[in-house]
Amino acid sequence: MVQQVTQGIKISVHTHFEGTFYKDYKIHYAFGYKITIENQSKKEVQLLARHWNIFDALNTPEIITGEGVVGKTPVLKPGESHTYSSGCLLSAPFGAMNGHYKMLDFTTNRYFNVEIPTFKLSAPFALN
């Protein structure tokens, strides 16, 4: 697990390897991750968007942006948290991800970014 706190918002990431499969005559490595976003600040915030940097050992980095997380834009009052699960496919058994969430502080009506710490994606059979 990796964790990071930005402006009172704590991000915790758990990862796991889901398996391999063939698609279009090419092997893919599937990884899952569970992220908990915990509001440790004294302000009410809303997650509006995400920005991901995906690093695959065999491909060029990929950037993904979009609204919310898995179709939601959660509002977090002080002390509340939101957990969701998602995943990604890599061409290699190794990779990593990081990024940030765009948040809105309802107290000041200002936007701010919360960093998502770099987390590794690695298939257990490829480790030694």
Automatic annotation (TrEMBL):
Superkingdom classification of source: Bacteria
UniProt cross-references to SUPFAM superfamilies, sorted A to Z: ApaG-like (SSF110069)
Domain ApaG: 3-128
Pfam families xrefs: DUF525
Gene Ontology BP annotations: error-free translesion synthesis
InterPro entries, sorted: ApaG_domain, ApaG_sf
NCBIfam families: PRK05461.1
Name this polypeptide is given: Co2+/Mg2+ efflux protein ApaG
